[in-house]
Write a structure and sequence with these properties.
Blueprint: E1 6-13, E2 23-30, E3 35-39, H1 46-53, E4 61-66, E5 69-70, E6 83-87, H2 91-100, E7 108-112, H3 119-134, E8 138-142, H4 146-152, E9 155-160, E10 163-168, H5 170-175, H6 177-182, H7 189-199, H8 213-221, E11 228-229, E12 240-246, H9 252-269, E13 275-279, H10 282-292, H11 299-308, E14 313-318, H12 325-335, E15 343-346, H13 354-367, E16 375-381, H14 390-401, E17 407-411, H15 418-428, E18 432-437, H16 444-450, H17 458-464, E19 469-471, H18 480-498
Parallel strand pairs: 3-8, 3-9, 6-7, 7-8, 12-13, 12-14, 14-15, 16-17, 16-18, 18-19
Antiparallel strand pairs: 1-2, 1-4, 4-5, 9-10, 11-15
Helix pairs in contact: 2-3, 7-8, 9-18, 13-18
Bound molecules: cobalt (II) ion (CO).
Cobalt (II) ion (CO) binds near residues 382 and 445.
Length: about 500
């Protein structure tokens, strides 16, 4: 209390006398070297309070202290005393004030907020107030700008009908919706979006409240990277597990040579951590159960199984190629179990970063190192309606850009389609076309849509255009270099899971 720079005790001001109070029983205290935004409509008492601080307004009742001493009336002339008023309506005035105050440090500066609240003005106000508070001065800024106040102020003082409606940190003041409504103020943009993201469960309300849009952006940016902390278990009794999530296949040999080979690579990389399996295709899982009596977990079943086994921390590595619908659904399914685990951390799909694309190109080029310059390799990707589909066209371009003009990548379901590839191949006229799947397993699409004998298979369509075609039924999961990329993604996830808990 003694350290307060300004202290008001039951201060009332009535200019006409009687019941028309400009300030009514005001008590507050403001500390030193604080940046304080003073807000409120015209006639709210804001201006009367600031005049009283300068000794320019006689008090009807109560006492106002500055630095422990009652403020004395000074008449109309502003002395070179402890309180300074700066009008900041133009940038030039602000710059001049900054220069004048370089040598001088008044105890209190009252800054009349600029009418034109553009970027240069904001920067000048920030710089001037930093310069002042560093030397011990408290700055009172009158302003109507909620966004700037959120970013700038240590404290916010909102006047309403001659009284202080609310006084606190920007986080406290702008969280009080009813006070804001009374004072006709709005929530700052960063807070409105933050609240909305918290309501949707996208951001955790336990995070520090963002004070700028940039801070909010940073919180959203971290979403992809963080691990999801649940309520259960601490470091005691920690038990990790890896969940390898694949789409699945009904072809037994593809299951062994691609999916099981990937799972084995995970086991070899992390021999101390058990590896669980989940497949996301309900259709394939039901078919395997029906035809072979083989029971394979979906993501919810696998989460439940790990929970039963006492697992506390889950690392989930998908074998998905792109960050598309399958991957998003898988994450949502797993996160339904978030509260039951201490942490859930996701590794990224095969094609996530630019470095991933470079490594995948290298792996494919290595696999088909025997391809002659007059031959062409045509890869069949799956394709998706999700915006992640653009990675296929980008990769097709990147093959050519990185010295493989005769490697083409198309998709069964989306762009680039077989038609786009055909028009390029008609120009290139390769002596032979090698067809291979660009999918984790050489399953149904590879065997039928790519290499099948039906009229609309890629093989048939290429042959009917006069190309000589040979098919390689080998999924990406069968390439050791591709498995190494997925192991690295899992290793990244494990590192992220071990980072200290945030927010
Ligand atoms: Co499909």
């Amino acid at each position: 209390m003694n350290d307060a720079l300004i202290r008001a005790e039951h201060v009332s001001v009535s200019f006409g006398g009687g019941a028309a109070w400009s300030l009514r029983d005001l008590s507050l205290s403001i500390g030193r070297r604080k940046k304080v935004a003073v807000m409120g409509a015209n006639g709210s008492g804001k201006t009367t309070f600031l005049l009283a601080c300068q000794g320019l307004c006689p008090l009807t009742e109560g006492t106002l202290y500055l630095d422990g001493k009652p403020v004395e009336p000074v008449g109309d002339e502003m002395p070179d005393g402890p309180v300074r008023l700066i009008s900041s309506s133009t940038a030039r005035e602000l710059e001049q004030a900054a220069r004048e105050l370089e040598q001088d440090a008044p105890q209190l500066v009252i800054l009349d907020g600029p009418a034109a609240w553009d970027r240069p003005h904001r920067a000048l106000v920030s710089r001037l107030s930093d310069q002042l508070t560093e030397r011990g001065t408290t700055v009172l800024l009158t302003t109507y700008e909620e966004d700037f106040t959120m970013e700038w102020a240590d404290e916010v003082l909102v006047f309403h009908q001659g009284q202080v409606l609310i006084h606190g940190t920007p986080e406290q003041v702008f969280a009080n919706s009813s006070a804001l409504a009374l004072a006709n103020l709005e929530k700052p943009a960063c807070l409105r979006i933050f609240d909305c993201l918290c309501r949707k469960g996208i951001l955790s309300s336990a995070l520090p409240v963002p004070r700028t849009l940039e801070e909010l952006e940073a919180a959203v940016d971290q979403l992809h990277d963080r691990s999801y902390r649940g309520g259960a278990a601490g470091n005691q009794g920690k038990k990790e597990a890896i969940l390898a999530v694949s789409f699945g296949t009904s072809f037994a040999e593809a299951r062994v040579s691609a999916i099981e080979a990937i799972e084995k690579a995970f086991e070899e990389a992390f021999p101390e951590i058990p590896v669980y399996r989940a497949w996301t295709s309900g259709m394939i899982r039901r078919k395997l159960l029906r035809t072979e009596g083989m029971e394979i977990d979906g993501v919810p079943e696998a989460m439940e199984r790990m929970l039963r086994d006492g697992v506390t921390d889950v690392l989930i590595q998908p074998t998905h190629i792109v960050n598309g619908i399958e991957n998003e659904q898988m994450k949502a399914d797993a996160l339904a179990w978030q509260d039951q685990f201490h942490s859930i951390t996701f590794g990224t799909p095969l094609l996530t970063s630019q470095e991933d694309c470079r490594q995948v190109i290298e792996a494919v080029a290595q696999e088909f190192a025997g391809l002659g310059p007059e031959e062409a390799l045509v890869l069949m990707g799956h394709g998706t309606t999700h915006y992640a589909n653009s990675v296929y066209a980008a990769l097709d371009y990147q093959f050519k850009d990185s010295g493989h003009p005769n490697i083409y990548l198309g998709t069964v379901e989306a762009y680039p389609s077989m038609e786009s590839l055909l028009s390029m191949l008609r120009v290139a006229r390769p002596s032979r076309v090698v067809l291979a799947p660009f999918m984790i397993v050489a399953g149904d699409h590879a065997r039928n849509d790519m290499a099948g004998e039906e009229e609309d298979s890629w093989k048939h369509r290429l042959e009917s255009q006069g190309f000589s075609v040979s098919c390689v039924l080998k999924g990406l999961g069968e390439y050791p270099a591709i498995r190494r990329i997925l192991v690295e993604h899992l290793r990244d996830a494990k590192e992220r899971a071990e980072e200290p808990e945030r927010g």
